[in-house]
Structures are given as C-alpha cells and as structure tokens.
Amino acid sequence: MATRVLLLMALTLFIFPLIIPMATATFHVKGSVYCDTCRAGFETNATFYIEGARVGIQCKERRTLKKVFYREGVTDSSGTYHIEVENDHGDHICQCMLVKSPIKWCSTPDSGRDRSSIVLTHYQNGIVNHLHYANAMGFLRDEPLPQCDTLLKYYLADSDF
C-alpha cells in the first residue's frame, strides 16, 4: 500500500507536470521573408529582408484537408516574423505561407519558396522546444538587378552546369 502511495506521489510531482505543458502547448514560430533581387530562386548577396510582409500559418486536418487553424503575422525591421500558435497540432498538416509584400516591385511569391512546412506537435517526436523555425520564404523582384549576371556566374563557378 505504501509503495502505491509513493508511486502516485512520484507521478503527481514529477511526471504529470512534464506531460501537461505539452498537451496545452503554445508554439512560437519564427521565420524570415526576403526579396530575391536576382530572381535566382535562393538567397544571394544581393538579397534583402522585407519589413512589413504579411505571413500566415495554416493547419489542416490530414484526412479531410479542412482548415482548423489560421493566424497571420507581420515581419519586423529585420524581415523576421514571430507567430504564436495555440495547442498541439499533432495530426495536422501545418504550413507557413507568404500572404502579401509591402513592396510593389517585389511582390510576386517565388513558387518554390512561398511556403514552408512546419511541425507543431510534441507527440512522440522528441521535440521539447516551443520555438520552431520555418525556412525562409521569398518574393521575386519584377526585374533582376543589373549586377545579378555577374553574381550568378560567381555562384555557378564551381558548378558542373
């Protein structure tokens, strides 16, 4: 009997406090938004990060693809956004996505870099941190900068292409 009482006390004091925060988790998603000034499809030395870009996080049910969560955020002066997501989205498909650029000449989402999948669960995945990072996402400049030819030749100098 005493052993059961000690076991119950141990569960109450040590194990349950570790499980409950995971079930009621608030995740902090962080990422950045840039302007691809060379239309290269990746970040270069000519890339700059956009202040005031709107980004959304959307989670859908895996089977029905019904939207169950959506929240938007705005990038700061360094082009970084921070968005809080309530609850564990264990069996949901979650993505960060570009919504709108404040720069008219750099407002076309790069189709290869306009969204980023993100895992927003702690359930059986070993992730205990509440801060999750998304891949950088980018808008394309309408016309590439004049120095982009030289810059892209530099990036491709060691390439087999």
Please tell me about this protein's structure:
This protein has a single domain (25-153), classed as Immunoglobulin-like (Sandwich). Helices cover 19% and strands 35% of the residues. It contains two helices and ten strands. The protein has helices at 2-23, 148-155, and strands at 26-36, 48-49, 54-61, 67-74, 80-86, 92-100, 108-109, 115-117, 131-133, 137-140. Keywords: Disulfide bond, Signal. It holds the Pfam family Pollen_Ole_e_1. Residues 1-25 form the signal peptide.
The counted number of beta strands is 10
CATH C-level label: Mainly Beta
SS field, number of helical segments: 2
Low-pLDDT parts are 16-23
Order of helical and strand elements: HEEEEEEEEEEH
Can you summarize the main beta sheet? 6 strands, mixed
| CATH-derived architecture | Sandwich
Shape: elongated
Helicity range of the residues?
Answer: 10-25%
Range of strand content: 35-45%
Kindly identify the CATH topology.
Immunoglobulin-like
* Name given to the CATH homologous superfamily: Immunoglobulins
Q: What labels would you give this structure?
A:
161 residues, alpha+beta, Immunoglobulin-like, six-stranded mixed beta sheet, four-stranded antiparallel beta sheet, 2 helices, 10 strands, elongated
Explain the layout of strands and helices.
Elements: H1 2-23, E1 26-36, E2 48-49, E3 54-61, E4 67-74, E5 80-86, E6 92-100, E7 108-109, E8 115-117, E9 131-133, E10 137-140, H2 148-155
Parallel strand pairs: 1-9, 1-10
Antiparallel strand pairs: 1-2, 1-5, 3-4, 3-6, 6-8, 7-10
Signal peptide: 1-25
InterPro entries: Pollen_Ole_e1_allergen
Pfam family, one: Pollen_Ole_e_1
